[in-house]
Amino acid sequence: MEPGKLRGLMDRVRNTIIVLVAICGPLIIPGWNCGRVFAQMLDLVPASPATSVEGNPTRLHEVQAFDRSRIAHREAKRLEKAGSPVCVDRYYEATVFAYAAILATGTTGVTDWNQIPDDYNISLADCLRAAGTFGRLDPRSHLQINGPAGPIVVRVIHRGFVWSPEDFEGLIDARSAPKNPAQHRSYQRVGAGAAQVSVRSNRNLTSADRFLPPRSFFPATAILHPDLGPWIGLAGTPRGGDLLELHDPLRTTCVELAGGRFPLACNLDASVAMAEASVGSRRYALVGFLNPSIEVGNTFLGTLEPYQPGKIPVVFVHGLRDNPYTFTDLVNGLRACPGFLDHFQIVGFRYPTGITFIRSAAMFRRCLRDMEATFDPQHRDPGLQNTVLVGHSMGGLISKLQITWSGEALWNLAATQPLETLVTSESTKTFLREIFYFEPLPFVRRVVFMGTPHDGAALANRAVGRVTSRLVRRAADSLAMIDQLERDNPGALLPYMADLPSSIDLLAKRGPILKTMRQLPINPATTYHTIAGTASMPDRFARGDGVVPLSSAHSDGAASELWIPATHSRINADPQTLQELDRILRVHLAETYGPPPGR
Predict the structure, then answer these.
(1) With a threshold of 0.90, does the pTM exceed it?
(2) pLDDT digits (tens, 9 = 90+) for 153-176
(3) pLDDT tens digit string along 393-416?
(4) Where are the chain's structural domains?
(5) Which of 48, 80, 259, 571 is the least buried, fewest Cβ under 10 Å from its Cβ?
(6) Which CATH number, 3.40.50.10770, 3.40.50.1820, 3.40.50.2000, 3.40.50.2300, labels domain 284-291+305-455+508-593?
């Protein structure tokens, strides 16, 4: 037999014996350290460490190391199923040998992770999941492992996050994320590391915490750098202790691992899906539309990350029967755009859509002022003072009411006498004043209208719109206020106000509110843009997005107007919308801070 074929046959026989020894050894001799004997068989550990040469370690076989990793992983699965915490150690062992296998490849430079077997990522993800289950992991500080030479305390280091280490209260495997019904495109990157979702509970310790949700979910990618010494005794391997790095995959794209440089794995979908599921956004949208009294108190202006001074807030405002997660594709798409997070930060506004939208606009105005008072009371933050609003559908109308002067125009639609002459409580006067009298917010410098019905929507005029409007329960506090005003001020309220129109009623074409809003003066210091849908029809035949006619979406004076082949409900998810919004924000950034170097 040829020497090459003989060596191949001997290797196959040898590997078979190794697997049998690793599996059967502990059954024959309890407590037997099969791990070290196995490693010696692989030539990963010399029979005597003294035989190794510094800088020229004993032979390291990539395939055999991967085999050892997979054996440990199978054993870990069995132990986990049996409810044994030892599974954490076996998963860790599987990760260590997968790391050793990558090291054995001698990879240098940036390498496509698709060329590397996924054992490392899978074993590490399983290890972290099991460690969390059995109380071995505190993602703020350390991971506890029982290694071949005794206990190992693996330090946890956080890299690149705007969150503090104390915010890492728990890690959830990104693979366990539920489906996000609002998402149409996936935003993931193949690479090294175990994709995780970190969880932070809001203890409301500071005023800034009021702008974070009860639970925040944000992406993290774990990278383990093990000390190979205790496992395979290689001379020349790092002896500084095991290190578990948690990287922000939004801000880090490549990572050093086992002597090579690889793309960092990234999963933006999982954290958003978990956040959506935790707040029950679909239920909120339905209840907030049909019975808004229940959800008025849950109106919320929230940041996706802790507020960052100097970065421009991009505030998303959803439309009728919707919620902030309708912008999932846009938000993830923007966060994936190079440079976006260096200059911008995401903010979302949630409100019950069944109430009259001019009241929603007043609530939004109050929230925006509160944000400025909290983060920029001196009006000096160049980021906040150049805030951008992005409104879809009715959210565009709510955004428009942040950049216009009301004068007496809206109040004249509601009453026949001045507000101050009404017989009512001071709190009611304040309530009405906030709704009907306002000025532009000076720090809102740009607005993007997406499928916004400036002249109304066809659906509101149809039978289904009228029937749906009847299903909407008027807010209890508004009903009580109208009753008191009519009782103590006979004839003061006009029928339009007395009937307490819902948002659907206000969106009816040729309605008085929308006609009046068309005439309200817009702050000349604010720039605005239009994105309208054509429902996939060619431009010359297009009439609208199926809900909002193009004539209604049009706004005189817009700096730009783009038609995209999308229906009303899919404008938010269309790639052309993302491209246009990215373009608009780059223009806004250049006009705010000047063009970037080299442009």
Answers:
(1) no
(2) 999 999 999 999 999 999 999 999
(3) 999 999 999 999 999 999 999 999
(4) 14-270, 284-291+305-455+508-593
(5) 48
(6) 3.40.50.1820
